[in-house]
Every structure is written in C-alpha cells, then in structure tokens.
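May I ask for a single protein's sequence together with how it folds?
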Amino acid sequence: MNSFELNKIFGAILGTLVFVMGVSFIADEIYAPIEGRGADYALPEPAAEGEGGGEEAPGVPSIAARMQTASAEEGASLITRCQSCHDYSPSNENRTGPGIYGVVGHPIAGHEGFAYSDALATLGANGEIWDYEHLDAFLESPRNYAPGTKMSFAGLSNPDDRANLIAFLRENSDDPFPLPEAPAEEEAAPAEGEGGDEAPVEDELTAALAAVTPEDGEALIVRCQACHDYSPANANRVGPGIHNVVGAEIARHEGYSYSDALASLGAEGETWTPENLSAFLENPGEFAQGTRMSFPGLANVEDRAAVIVFLNSISDNPIELTSGGAAAEDTPAEQPVVEEVQELNLEEAAEGDDPVVIDAEEPQTEDAAADEGQPAAQ
C-alpha cells in the first residue's frame, strides 16, 4: 500500500472526527440545557448559632408586630446570603436574580429587564406589591409562596430573622416604605382558676372569628392566590377555586382532581365548616394525609380565622360563622290579645259598628283593683 492510499485512510478518519465534533457543538447550541427545571431537592440553609434549636412558640406574632422591634443592623448580617444572586446597591442591576434595592413597597415582578417566573408575574399583573406580608411569606419559603420560582434559596424559618431582613431592605431605599401600624394588644389570658384551661378548641376559634375582620384576612390570602382563584370566576389553577368555599361540600369543585383523603371526606358528606377549614389551614398534611398541597399551614388561630372570615365575606352565600345574637326568649313578646281587640274596637267605632267582645279581660293594676274594691293579684 503506497503513501497515497494511507493518506486517504487517515484523511477519512480525521474528517469523521471533525464532523462528529462539529455536530456536537451545533447540538449544544440548539438544545441548550434549561436550568432550574424538573424535580430537585434544595438542601436547607444551615442554622446560624443560636437560631432555632428549640420549638417555635405557638402563635407567631404578625409581621406588623415584629416590624415594631425589628433591627436593620441584624438584617445587614443576613443580607450576605442574598448578595451572590441579588444586587442591593443603588445601581440595582440584575444578576441571577433581580436587583432588590428599594424592593419594599415596589410592585411584584416589576424590576425592568428580569424574566420572572409565572407565579410572580401573575401576582404583579394583579397589582400586588412587595408589602410586609408578601415579603414575610416569600422569605419564609419562596417555593411554597410562588410554586415554580427559579429561586433556589430554601427560606428563613425564624420569624425574627425575616423581620430583621425586611427592616434592612426597607431602609435600603431612596424612599423607605412606611412601617405598618402596631397591632392592638391581645386580650389578657384568663386568670388561674377561671377555667381557661378547660375551654375547647371550638371556643378559641369562635372567639378568634369574632375578633378578626375581613381586612385582616385579605392581607393573608395573598399567600394562596398563586395556586387558588378566589375571584367570582373561581377557576382551577394548581389548586381548586375557593370562591364560595365556606360551607361548601369538601372536594366538590367541578373539574378538579382531589387527593384521595379529601375525596373520601367529600363522599362522607363533610363540608367546609369553619372548624374543618381551620384544621385544614393549620396543617393541610395532617388534616388530609396524602394531599398534594405544599402549603405548611398557619399556626396562629387568629390568622386562620381571618382567612375564613375574608373568604366568607366574598362569598355569594355567606354563612353565620359565630352563634352570636340574642336568644329567642329575649325577643319582644307579641302584643297582648286585649290590646289587639282595643285597636279593633276603635276601628269598628269609627265605622259605626258594634264593638267586639271577647272573654279575656285586660289585666288590672293594683291601683285599678283598689278603686273597684277588688283585691290586687298576689
């Protein structure tokens, strides 16, 4: 075999390798991998020294209450967790995430030039802003607050840390957003021996339902709107529509595929009473094991009551949430028969007819009985 034949063989091999490499480069350009899609598991953030370690006290104060004592200086030590993805300097440039300078009070998904996830874009299209409630819910668990978000941060489980970080972000602005008003102090707990320990859970919920307002619930319902439609359209999203849910049958919203646990409750005739709603909102996974709902729940009974009151207020057929109101025996008695007859006699006399006579006698007072020489009733 001469050198010309060998050159042809080596040339063919080399040409094949070049062709394969070229196809590989072209395929990488056309079919670039999409980051942040598909199932994955985000490792939780390591707890800082002194953070956590004990059980969280039941009834976490509202963000409005926590903001009254929040420390921007403490928040400055927490913002370092964000700086690799976010620019919080006045230049406010987009990085992996959007710039967050002046974010408190800014429209959600409103930073120019950044491609937001569908969940956040929907909130922005609805006119929502990054107020204290939104930021607190988002920082607690970005993925629960906005399913499908590209943000990989696991969240801040400590309520005080979230308040401190928000306090820093608030001051990190050309025009700081106004602080929320301090909430009214809660009523004092019943004194020892007054039977407070024996009060059932229903009484606690009833008291909370009477104490909160629809406006309180409206500030909390924003946590639900990424997955649920509570407008009169009542469309199914990630979860079923929840307009008119209070008092409705469980697992009965048309067109939605419920988990087996909720479907079983619906088949048994259970309805979304305030008690059932409160239990579900407190811990969806415990109320309906196997539910696909990822929301961790609301530990504070007043928060749950506020959401229920709000949903009931926007319902086409609101139900009575508490058993308040006067008892039947407290209602005014019907007009005595004698008085009715007297009125009828006046009408008859005006028309020239004979008066009506009945066997009943008008009760006499003590003075009248004495005038007639009769003993008064004892």
Q: What stands out?
A: Residues 64 and 181 are 7 Å apart (CA to CA). The mean pLDDT is 78. The chain has 15 helices and no strands. The longest helix spans residues 3-30.
